[in-house]
Amino acid sequence: MGDNIEVFQQLFTPSVQHTLDLVGIFFFAISGALLAVRKNFDVFGIAVLAEVTALGGGLFRDLVIGAVPPAAFTDLGYFLTPLLAALLVFFLHPEVERIQLGVNVFDAAGLGLFCVAGTTKAYEYGLGLTASVTLGLATAVGGGVLRDVLANEVPSLLRWDRDLYAVPALVGASTVVLCIHYDALNPATSTLAALAAFALRLLAMRYHWRAPRAWHRRSTAAEVPD
Amino acid sequence: MGDNIEVFQQLFTPSVQHTLDLVGIFFFAISGALLAVRKNFDVFGIAVLAEVTALGGGLFRDLVIGAVPPAAFTDLGYFLTPLLAALLVFFLHPEVERIQLGVNVFDAAGLGLFCVAGTTKAYEYGLGLTASVTLGLATAVGGGVLRDVLANEVPSLLRWDRDLYAVPALVGASTVVLCIHYDALNPATSTLAALAAFALRLLAMRYHWRAPRAWHRRSTAAEVPD
Amino acid sequence: MGDNIEVFQQLFTPSVQHTLDLVGIFFFAISGALLAVRKNFDVFGIAVLAEVTALGGGLFRDLVIGAVPPAAFTDLGYFLTPLLAALLVFFLHPEVERIQLGVNVFDAAGLGLFCVAGTTKAYEYGLGLTASVTLGLATAVGGGVLRDVLANEVPSLLRWDRDLYAVPALVGASTVVLCIHYDALNPATSTLAALAAFALRLLAMRYHWRAPRAWHRRSTAAEVPD
């Protein structure tokens, strides 16, 4: 696996990869900060929800693969970027809400970047192909789940009345693993995997693609979570 | 402790232990998938809740004892079994609901198996007797708590109006630790501990055994969680 | 850093530090147990919420810095103290509620002790100054967040209509890190940092200091959580 690690580390130059990470972190943090404003949290709550949304998925991945202390606590840029997003939303949230479409587009970009980076890092740490896909997915969607749990809402990831979110990340992570399996992971294929997840998420939002609920579900409106 | 480990590893043949683990995982996953259907989640939400319910307790235990990557991410069978349960519930949930009694019986079996396996593994990793009991308990009930948190419900484990669930697991875990203390842990006593937890849970369901609430509680219906 | 560790370990004699830890754990556990009584949980739910509130923050810190098994599972006193608090609340909760002011004062003391101890331990394990402050804060407030999540409530930490809680802990943790930076951390400055957090929290409760919500927030009563 030593060779693989070497190849992976050259996927992108470190500074390019780091910049991409910060971009993804920033837009995830925006989505956390906006939910905090909607929930009427104070400035500190806005900062906490921004941090958790942006770093929660990667933190979970790092604990699982034993990469401690996690990157969220060793890279100052990872920590400060969500604070910047929180500050922006604190002062300008009506303006940020107004460009919700733009935020969603960048959140989709974050989803694409994180599922690829998470899958690659999990494989580098010795996990199998299936486990790497699972952790790539968890890296991409974990922060959003923690955000919703802290805001005391049913995770939007699990709700049937939301556009597909996990499936695009799953496709991106699976593409990475297929490339690894066929020894074809390189900057070009990595970028392709991230773009595939990005594009799928945009299409899901545009055409309101949704996943089916259980078959033969009886109508039970009373059971629908608020 | 080296001797102990050797003894423990021979408790059951690996394949027997593995089969028992998969059986417990399967029935825990069924309970997660059924709650997801009741909460109106989509097919992906059903799969996530099945995975979390089945593997969450063991994942927490493995992170605490430093067994990374956790078994949930290294054993493909552990990962695929909940998906099978989710698929079954997705297509046949009315039939599965109808045999709820049977599901509860098997969930009780999972509880017995997990509290024994969790306690044994924690002790193998060098934890003290009390800590091993605590982690055995957490292994058995942790997945269910995570399931309820993700579904945005008060964990059924904590509610006074549910039949005893933790106490049977506590009895099973304590039995294991007593056997360790008196150097009497072997396949027979392990099986006995699991059966004790299993039987206690069945009795608690049959006779609606419940734990008391705080003494002299004033009647405050308004404070009762939904 | 070796020198630093030696200095830190002499901050207080081990038995003094341990006693302070147990005092903080006890009062955090009381706050968890009282919420459990209010939520109508049974005796087991009271014990779980006491344990989680008292040990959750330190557990998270230990997992992040790789100190496994975490202190919560290796020190019997850490485990038994919350049970004692739970027992007390179980039998005497009307009396404990009546002295809520006293409980809040001691919870504030716990906050001061935990933010200092958490920051120091994180730095000892090699984290940077900013990350140490973050983990000190997480040690102090993490248990309360977990308590509220398990009780299915919006974490009181994040709500704008609660008196400042995180800011005092942040001040305490930052003071520790400033002392480290200027090579001035000793028992006296540590005590000062803990006292500063303690006093700030008392003042915040006395004068109902609160953090601002987002600027130009439109009135949207319907969106206010419960």
Automatic annotation (TrEMBL), chains A, B, C:
GO cellular component, one term: plasma membrane
Keyword NADP: no
Keywords (A to Z) from UniProt: Cell membrane, Membrane, Transmembrane, Transmembrane helix
Residue ranges constituting the Glycine transporter domain according to the UniProt record: 19-93, 105-179
Entry's localization field: Cell membrane
Principal subcellular localisation of the protein: membrane
A Pfam family it matches: Gly_transporter
InterPro entries: Gly_transporter
TM regions (residue ranges): 20-37, 44-64, 76-94, 125-146, 191-209
Statement: the UniProt record of this protein carries the keyword Cell membrane: yes
Membrane topology: Multi-pass membrane protein
Family: Belongs to the UPF0126 family.
Protein name stated in the entry: UPF0126 membrane protein
Organism of provenance: Streptomyces aurantiacus
Organismal lineage: Bacteria, Bacillati, Actinomycetota, Actinomycetes, Kitasatosporales
